[in-house]
Write a structure and sequence with these properties.
Number of helices: 7
Number of strands: 11
Structural class: alpha+beta
Strand order of the largest sheet: 2-3-4-8-9
Strand content: 15-25%
Radius of gyration: 20 Å
Shape: globular
Order of helices and strands: HEHEEEEEEEEHHHHHEE
Length: 299
DNA sequence: AGCGAGCCCTGCGCGC
DNA sequence: TGCGCGCAGGGCTCGC
């Protein structure tokens, strides 16, 4: 499920439940979900038991819960199919449950943080926090300039107030690659995946393979603005209210609750010009675009 | 530097 | 009904 808006929905849903909560139990049902944890399963559980979470923070598609007084955080990445769900302790286990973390919340009582992941491309891990390179807050959710070492190489996302537009444009100009490759490069700009890349490129009328170095400043500015617009709109639509009874912070509503203009629309009419949207193989995935509105040569 | 390929995996929906 | 296949929103590493 997860690009930035979906992960933000999860973060916002988790925040009120986990902040100030104490971990009371840890159960790892599939050790493969801890692939990115530096140590054995027992170590993961040991680090978490008794931990108190300071909040829920996100940068790009990475999510983490800082552990009070430890200099560490529980880090989650959802991969292609991961979900973090809040459950009542007595609820029957979700299908594809990989990690189950019991917490005691000051306001909401006992809850379960359930990490569900079909393909196991996602992961949970306990990682050390390191200072951010620029000394600014690491991500959305907490004013703390420390970031998990696993996330330190990930660029800020376009909704981050500390995102540096000028540095982004300069980096873009230095690149010798196609614009979609650049958008998907999480070390250049984070949070954008295949869906929102296609949607932003459609909105900015850019071909996915347009060379970054030839992208004019106005077109790059337009593209970044479209990225922000699309991400922000999806975040607004994905917002889930917290319900202490039976909580589901699944961000699934994000993608499909609003109409997509390009992604998955192959064969259907381009909403702008009426000609058919095309799907083309790209980076072991697909690109969806309008060959008329999004031509390789600038018009 | 950046690309392509390969790999990590499971389950769904579709066509036959 | 059952089977095989293609498909899926990510990220990391490696060799070139």
């Amino acid at each position: 499920m997860p690009e930035l808006p979906e992960v933000e929905t999860v973060r916002a849903g988790l925040e009120p439940a986990v902040t100030g909560s104490t971990v009371t139990s840890v159960s790892v049902l599939d050790a493969r979900s801890l692939r990115r944890h530096d140590g054995p399963v027992e170590d993961f559980a040991d680090q978490l038991l008794g931990a108190i979470f300071d909040g829920a923070v996100r940068r790009g598609k990475f999510l983490w819960l800082p552990i009070a007084g430890s200099g560490r955080a529980l880090v989650a990445h959802l991969g292609m199919s991961g979900q973090v769900l809040l459950r009542a302790p007595a609820a029957s286990p979700d299908r594809l449950l990989r990690v189950r973390i019991g917490i005691e919340s000051p306001q909401h009582g006992e809850l379960v943080v359930a990490f569900v992941d079909q393909r196991i491309f996602g992961s949970m891990s306990v990682r050390d926090l390191v200072p951010t390179a620029d000394g600014r807050a690491a991500g959305r959710g907490l004013d703390d300039a420390r970031i998990p070492d696993q996330v330190a190489h990930i660029a800020r996302d376009p909704l981050d107030p500390a995102f540096d537009d000028r540095a982004f444009f300069a980096a873009l100009r230095r690149r010798r690659t196609g614009i979609k490759r650049a958008l998907l490069d999480q070390t250049l700009v984070s949070g954008i995946g295949n869906i929102y890349a296609d949607e932003a490129l459609w909105a900015a009328r850019l071909h996915f393979d347009a060379p970054t170095e030839t992208l004019s400043r106005p077109r790059a500015t337009t593209l970044l603005a479209e990225v922000r617009l699309i991400l922000a709109r999806a975040v607004a639509e994905g917002g889930t209210s917290f319900d202490a009874q039976y909580v589901n912070v699944n961000g699934a509503s994000g993608y499909f609750s609003h109409s997509l203009n390009a992604y998955g629309q192959q064969g259907r009419a381009c909403p702008r010009c009426g000609r058919p949207i095309v799907r083309e193989a790209f980076m072991n995935r697909n690109s969806h675009f309008c060959p008329y509105c999004q031509r390789l040569r600038a018009r």
